[in-house]
């Protein structure tokens, strides 16, 4: 039964013009980055020579060490210190293994740039999540939907799952479109290794794996914000409030949390300190002592609270429109 | 008597301090069109919302086909097809897709069922048009198709003729009456348009301020014993009056040059034959039918304690 309900939601979603506008904007976004990058791409002739980039890195190392020295006895912050230490380690690793930080524009760097468009998908998924419930109330169709031998829980579940599927669908489109456009326009010349460091220890990873990971971990933020906007729209039945609040969190959440992390360790309980799971595979967490397990636990707790509230309100309330 | 398909037992609804529905009880049987009347704000829509489970019942019991709507929702609601207020369908979907949508929400609804319903409500020729291009009458018909897609045992319609033109109303009425008799399903219709209800319903309940005032048959005058008032136009009014009062022992009033008597159906027959035998010419006999409107106004204006 749930499958049929999801089928229904999917049918409704793809019979609405707004869905096609979203898809259009996403395709437009990919083409804009493609055009801009195409006319500004770095050719191999423009790349700095080995001596040039090595001295450049050494200079930045001097600055980083000076910053670290300042911290001793003074203002010591885990977030900043680990950031400096990891940068330093990566720079040294590059110099030792002769890996230039500069490269010609290629399909990987292009896909990497397009991770910025994930925020766009975030906005779209929030809009869908906020309207998929509120819309039924606005149009009054909720009455016909509920007067069936299907429980309210099933109806809400089908709507949530559809929203998540829509988000994954957009992510898949973005990734494959970026890959296709990138490989045609920019080719595969370039490093296939991604460098990252945790606690001053450098790790080499396959680049495509890393890109896949960063797309997936960005979908964690997406999932949480969908649950959030879903809760708001179910409780307040207002698309506007749900969209406004969620989009605001999407854009300022992480920054606000890192500012908060400068002052207090409590920031680690903030949702946005934990949405970026990629840090555990790359540059280390925002606050000392956070682990992957901790973040997942915090995320699960937030997620459960959001959905629990949404379901409770949806189930109990009298429908009076 | 058949088992009722819908039973309300002492249903109450309170919202905050307001006691909206007070001890409401009535039954609806298969094959009948049951009218649910009341002035605006009497609680018609609230009652319908409770019957279909959109609103919780504060106390009392609503049973559909023997299953309680509050305790056994899924089983109870399986038997119900409903339009609550306007038929709000998805404007951006075509008529056919709307029906597919609601068909998927019930068991065993096939493509053929959908096609058949579209033909029955006369929307087959526009099935692929988006609903936002439909007229109100077409939307109402699609609303009914939607409500009947899973072959329910009871159809609940809140103000089904709202906004329809006379031809649309007539079509709707004929369709509903036909469906009730042919498929033996019960239809509960709420409305405040009385003349319409009179033509559509077999029985009706009147509520006022959340209380049931009365349940009656629309045509309760078929009974031979019931005394009704009759008016009679005759050639010699005075002579006839004296004759009736003396010979038949019935009080007669004279109103606008016509005789007015209170007798049973049998009584009026006897009266007519004896008057003609006594050379009084009768031009016409009119039974003063109490309309649904009279009864409605009578019921809703008197204080019910």
From TrEMBL, chain A:
Q: Name one GO molecular function term.
A: ABC-type transporter activity
Give the record's keywords alphabetically: Membrane, Transmembrane, Transmembrane helix
Q: Could you name the Gene Ontology cellular component terms for this entry?
A: plasma membrane
- Record-annotated membrane-spanning stretches: 20-39, 113-134, 155-188, 208-230, 242-263, 292-314
Origin: domain of life: Bacteria
User: Membrane: is it a keyword of this entry?
Assistant: yes
From the Swiss-Prot or TrEMBL record, give the protein name: ABC-2 type transport system permease protein
| Organism (species) | Ornithinibacillus halophilus
TrEMBL record, chain B:
Keywords on record = ATP-binding, Nucleotide-binding, Transport
SMART domains membership: AAA
Q: Which GO terms describe its molecular function?
A: ATP binding; ATP hydrolysis activity
**Any idea where the ABC transporter domain is?**
6-234
InterPro entries on file: AAA+_ATPase (IPR003593), ABC_transporter-like_ATP-bd (IPR003439), ABC_transporter-like_CS (IPR017871), P-loop_NTPase (IPR027417)
Source domain of life is Bacteria
The record's section on PANTHER family has: ABC TRANSPORTER, ATP-BINDING PROTEIN
- Family, as annotated: Belongs to the ABC transporter superfamily.
Output this protein's name.
Answer: ABC-2 type transport system ATP-binding protein
- According to its UniProt entry, this protein's organism is Ornithinibacillus halophilus
Q: What is the lineage of its organism?
A: Bacteria, Bacillati, Bacillota, Bacilli, Bacillales
